[in-house]
Amino acid sequence: MTDLIHTRRELAAATAAVPEVAVVMTMGALHEGHRQLMRAARERSAFVVVTIFVNPLQFGPSEDFEKYPRTLEADLEACRDEGVSVVFAPSRDEVYPGGPPQITMNAGPLGDILEGASRPGHFAGMLTVVEKLLLLTRADVAYFGEKDFQQLALIRRMVQDLELDVEIAGVPTVREPDGLALSSRNRYLSADERRSAAALSRALREGAAQGDAEAALAVAQKILDDEPGVRLDYLALTGPDLGPVPESGPARLLVAARVGSTRLIDNVPLQLTKGR
């Protein structure tokens, strides 16, 4: 039985006597990637909370807050299927009772690169709501997908720097059969755009097959350049924590691009045998 609750008071009552709370934070429009997060949480914890809240703080003025899909009934059914204990779907006033907060999280230098450079203010809004929801849910462990890898890295850094008593667990990206990373925004793609979008994962996959940093970037860049339907925002190679590229060892290859009017992101891990 999955309970749907909307208020802080209900949430506090639901989690009060629970020995371990696992949390999956979402903005709704749930897909198989979200289900994988729920399954990972259920494997560890008997009590799983899924939060559904479209956070206005992390949308820029020209972004898709108003048209972001709201599918609560379908989302609730998915949570029931996965054995979720509680769905917390608060209103904006419940999360921000005093209106938009005057004090928000500072994402620091890691928040200024990649997505942060393209979406100013996004990570401050994201970290603010994540910190609020970690406290409201009394989370012991929270699960986040690796598709939003910079988000995951920033949440881990916030938890470390603020010494929050919660474990942050990353879950590998779930993909369509053609490799496209699952995203709530995929539904905006036309059939032709959907075919073009597959170039992102193909570029990452073939780039990651190279052991050399320069070759990884060159191979991925060529695939993206050869797909006219893709307008590249960035292609970047970083360390596994988004720091400098190592001479050898684990690294991360990340991409963001627009296909039609839809902005998509993706990333893959890779192993370097020779640095950039």
Architecture overview:
α3 links the parallel β3 (48-52) and β4. Helix content is 36%, strand content 21%. The chain has helices spanning 8-15, 32-44, 72-81, 92-95, 115-118, 122-137, 149-161, 191-208, 213-225; strands at 3-5, 22-26, 48-52, 86-88, 141-145, 167-171, 230-238, 249-259, 262-272. It folds into two domains: 3-171, HUPs (Rossmann fold, 3-Layer(aba) Sandwich), CATH 3.40.50.620; 184-271, Pantoate--beta-alanine Ligase, Chain: A,domain 2 (2-Layer Sandwich). By secondary structure, the protein is of the alpha/beta class. Strands 1-4-3-2-5-6 form a six-stranded parallel sheet, with helices on both faces. The chain is built from nine helices and nine strands. The chain is globular and about 55 Å long. The protein starts with a strand and ends with a strand.
Provide a short characterization of the protein structure.
The protein is α/β, with parallel strands linked by helices and 276 residues long.
> What pattern of helices and strands is seen along the backbone?
EHEHEHEHHHEHEHHEEE
Quaternary structure type: single chain
Instruction: Please report the number of helical segments.
Output: 9
Shape: globular
Profile the largest sheet: 6 strands, parallel
Under CATH, the homologous superfamily of the largest domain reads HUPs
Overall pLDDT confidence: 95
Count of individual beta strands: 9
Count up the domains. Answer: 2
Q: Work out the radius of gyration.
A: 19 Å
Determine the fraction of residues in helical runs and give it as a percent range: 25-40%
Secondary-structure map with pairings?
Blueprint lengths: L2 E3 L2 H8 L6 E5 L5 H13 L3 E5 L19 H10 L4 E3 L3 H4 L19 H4 L3 H16 L3 E5 L3 H13 L5 E5 L19 H18 L4 H13 L4 E9 L10 E11 L2 E11 L4
Parallel strand pairs: 1-4, 2-3, 2-5, 3-4, 5-6
Antiparallel strand pairs: 7-8, 8-9
Helix pairs in contact: 6-7, 8-9
